[in-house]
Amino acid sequence: MDTPLVGRRTPLHMPINRHVHLSSALVCSQRLLLHTESYMMPDQAQSSEAAVPNSNPFPSPYGVPHLDADAAKIAVRTYMNQQGYEVYERRSKKTKTGVVQKIWLCCAHGRTYGEANNRTYLAEESRLRQTSSHRLDCPWSAVLKRAEGNDTVWSATLEKDQHNHDRSEDLSAYASVRKLTAAHRETIRQMSKAGSLPRVILASLRQQDPTTIIMAQDIYNAKKAMRAEDLGGRHPIEVLLDELQEQDIQHDLQRSSTGHITHLFFVPKKPVALAHEFPYVILADCTYKTNKFKMPLLHVVGMTSTNQSFSICFVFMSGETQADYEWALLRVKTMYGDTLPLVVVTDRELALMNAISQTFPSIINLLCTWHIEKDVLAKTKKHFTTKEEFDHFFTQW
Ligand SMILES: [Zn+2]
């Protein structure tokens, strides 16, 4: 099917232009102009103009010399992006010494949805097509070739100017068009370090460059890649243990018979001094949904004489049995040494309360009024018909 829009200047060109990487397009067009001046013979220019009807505001990349293979590829790609098509490298031909001589380009919808994807060797009719696949066997193709007798100059030739699909109104569907630049990556890295959420990072990138078509998924992918880079092939837990060791942070861990870490106790440096300064009252409670392993996190909090709270230590536990709590509390006790806390405030978690009476026999265990009120609210509200009645009861309680 011939594409009806190529070769005509239509208003449809407008939204496409907006999505093209303007910086790369500019560099490429400048390069092209430079080379057109230095290499192009007048008769060559004539023939290329005649061969490809050009409605594109960018110069045609075909039949003109390019600086190198990359410049030729960028020129063809930018030119095609302008028309609403994305281009991939299909294959290349190298000499025996490994020097690339020829590169075949295809449409992003080129190649068949064929054998290469069928890793489970299912019969064609029982295979479900991967919905994200772009492969439509589009016939469009171009060739980049090293100029004969010249080692560096490359030329591009259009082999088949035909697509079997419509041009794309929105090139952001192609991941290759949304490729992040080094500057984008740096912004993502810095903002992630500062704790910014991906949507905030995306808003910032769009503010810096309104033409960008980066999507939230690109930021998630970039963050994942950066994390893998930072981990340097190590497992996240190995990195955590290395950091605890390197930064001399007081910690302790327990492993299962299979070597998995079941409990991890650690005390950030600053709170140790504060905990010894104000050992009188501590609060202990578990929080959830803090990690992908679904391990509850026991958080021990201290109170200063000015009623300010501070985190003392954290314990990841594989379960919430009395034995789990006892393991954790023994480490807390060791941390305190001789001056033990006098009062511990908890919610009515029986396993924790039993563990406290075992490890801190002399401590006074108070129940947290906030938790009590929350339970009173949950259990009694249904017995009142009006809000006023309930509010009256709750203030009296
Ligand atoms: Zn195509």
Number of domains: 3
Dominant shape: elongated
Structural classification: alpha+beta
Give the helix tally. 13
Q: What's the mean pLDDT score? A: 80
The whole-angstrom Rg is: 33 Å
List its salient traits.
397 residues, alpha+beta, 3 domains, seven-stranded mixed sheet, binds zinc ion
Concise structural overview:
The chain has helices spanning 13-19, 22-39, 42-51, 69-83, 182-193, 198-208, 216-231, 236-246, 269-277, 322-336, 350-359, 369-380, 387-396, and strands spanning 65-66, 87-94, 100-107, 141-146, 154-160, 250-255, 261-267, 281-287, 297-303, 309-317, 343-346, 364-367. By secondary structure, the protein is of the alpha+beta class.
Write the layout of secondary structure elements.
Layout: H1 13-19, H2 22-39, H3 42-51, E1 65-66, H4 69-83, E2 87-94, E3 100-107, E4 141-146, E5 154-160, H5 182-193, H6 198-208, H7 216-231, H8 236-246, E6 250-255, E7 261-267, H9 269-277, E8 281-287, E9 297-303, E10 309-317, H10 322-336, E11 343-346, H11 350-359, E12 364-367, H12 369-380, H13 387-396
Please give a structural write-up.
The N terminus is likely disordered. The relative contact order is 0.07. The protein has three domains: 161 residues, no CATH class; 50 residues; 145 residues, Nucleotidyltransferase, domain 5. Helix 5 crosses helix 7 and helix 10 crosses helix 11. The strands form two sheets. Strands 6-7-10-9-8-11-12 form a seven-stranded mixed β-sheet. Strands 1-5-4-3-2 form a five-stranded antiparallel β-sheet. It contains 13 helices and twelve strands. It starts with 12 loop residues before the first helix and ends with a helix. It has 397 residues and is of the alpha+beta class. The site of zinc ion has 7 residues, from loops. Zinc ion binds next to loops.
